[in-house]
Design brief:
The protein has 450 residues and is of the alpha+beta class. The protein has 7 helices and 25 strands.
């Protein structure tokens, strides 16, 4: 599932099952840090954002309505399906419009309705309008496929051509609406206090010196960024790095996915340790952790196109001996990712097996003898990386759900930040803020504590 420059690090199945979450690939974005000052949006500005969204939702509903006449005139079995599909598209467009209308009513008393507004924007509307997996997007995609079939049967079918022209306009309207929803979501959630633009950012880590270590997958490098956005260290002898850890001795542990290896490099960029799998080639490395005993945890997602391939979490010694392994066929132990080794000796992981049959996935604590000591799955579609917090809660990067959540050991969600495109790594900082790699938006953000 994983296209090298596509979204998910829960690898192949997520792309197939979630409409391929494909990201931009070519042109780089100039690095630009932003210290974002805290501000309180005035009521007029806040209402202006909602009014703009309301106008866009109204326009979208009108656009969909334009398909009604021609969609009913397309002949044959395909025409009958187009007719039915139109009503699905119309229903979802009306649902978006109605929810924006409800949002306007809630905004009349924003202080009273703050939580309801946040839920409406971040969860309901973002989910409905998402251009990859939202209900409306799926319906429009289905209509496009049917129109292609109609035009294959008769390339000059005027009604099919009219519908196709409207679909092109709807695509632009969708993009505008999701951008407006995302901007509004940023205003009604905790403020972003630091931001850095980079290409394909994965698993950012705030270092003890205040700098941030970022795996810039699309630019094939690991970079250390100062708070002011200056690159103070860079290692570029890698291909599609997915994770890295700064070690106590100043060296850096790196998951070099493209070269199918895990390496340790010095500040002078000398490789002093390299692990290639020792008998079982590393295939899709999407996580590494350095353990207190000197060993290394590695998450290898395997190759889902190969029925013999094994996905595994392994603990490797400095002598490159595997001393612990939690594994299964890549089609069954799907796209595993790491939370790390816990103080109780258990290992925190994510298993996305539910992707294969449309069921929920789970995060869990795996005991040394490979039992499951704790498990959470409520509402999770796919997960990439997680962190056990000092208070016993678990921070989960719910990638396909476009959000990061904090859950208690009893499974209660006590914090969430959402409406972000393909989060690809998360860290709760000592100051209570949360660092998030937003892979689909090519940026790292630091979100202020609630």
């Amino acid at each position: 599932m994983t296209k090298e420059k596509s979204a998910i690090f829960v690898a192949a199945p997520a792309i197939l099952m979630l409409s391929a979450l494909v990201l931009c690939t070519g042109i780089g974005i100039a690095e630009s840090p932003t210290e974002i000052q805290e501000s309180n949006d005035s009521a007029p500005e806040y209402m202006g954002d909602i009014e703009e969204l309301a106008a866009s939702a109204k326009d979208l509903k009108k656009l969909v309505k334009q398909m009604e006449g021609p969609s009913h005139e397309i002949p044959g079995d395909v025409g009958a399906k187009v007719h039915t599909q139109f009503h699905r598209c119309e229903g979802f467009a009306v649902a978006i419009y109605d929810n924006v209308d409800e949002l306007e009513k809630l905004a009349a008393d924003p202080e009273k309705n703050e939580e309801k507004m946040r839920e409406m924007v971040v969860e309901t509307l973002y989910g409905q309008a998402n251009t990859e997996w939202g209900e409306f997007s799926v319906a429009i995609s289905g209509m496009s496929e049917l129109i292609e079939q109609a035009l294959e049967a008769d390339p000059e079918d005027e009604n099919a051509l009219k519908v196709q022209a409207v679909l092109d306009e709807i695509t632009d309207a969708q993009d505008a609406i999701i951008e407006e929803i995302s901007e509004l979501a940023a205003k009604i959630q905790e403020p972003i206090v630091w931001e850095y633009s980079c290409m394909g950012c994965l698993n950012p880590h705030r270092l003890a010196n205040g700098n941030t270590l970022i795996n810039e997958a699309f630019n094939d490098r690991v970079i250390e960024i100062s708070p002011e956005g200056e690159i103070v260290w860079e290692y570029a002898e890698v291909i599609y790095p997915t994770d890295s850890v700064r070690l106590d001795n100043g060296n850096t542990l790196i998951a070099d996915k493209g070269n199918k290896r895990v390496i340790v490099v010095t500040p002078e960029k000398e490789i002093v340790w390299e692990y290639l799998g020792n008998g079982q080639e590393l295939t899709a490395i999407y996580g590494v952790r350095a353990l207190d005993n000197g060993n290394v945890l590695i998450a290898d997602q395997g190759n889902m196109d190969d029925p013999e391939s094994i996905a595994r979490i392994i603990e490797v010694t400095q002598d490159k001996e595997v001393v612990w392994e939690y594994s299964g066929p890549a089609m069954e132990f799907v796209c595993p990712s790491l939370g790390g080794r816990l103080e109780n000796g258990n290992t925190l992981i994510a298993d996305n097996a539910g992707l294969m049959n449309g069921e929920q996935v789970y995060v869990g604590e795996i005991t040394p003898d490979k039992g499951i000591a704790w498990k959470y799955s409520e509402g999770l579609t796919c997960v990439y990386t997680l962190q056990r917090l000092a208070n016993g809660n678990t921070l989960i990067c719910a990638q396909c759900d476009s959000r990061v959540i904090e859950v208690t050991s009893e499974g209660e969600i006590v914090w969430a930040y959402g409406a972000i495109d393909t989060p690809g790594g998360v860290q709760r900082l000592d100051n209570g803020n949360t660092l998030i790699g937003v892979f689909g938006e090519n940026r790292v953000i630091e979100v202020e504590a609630a």
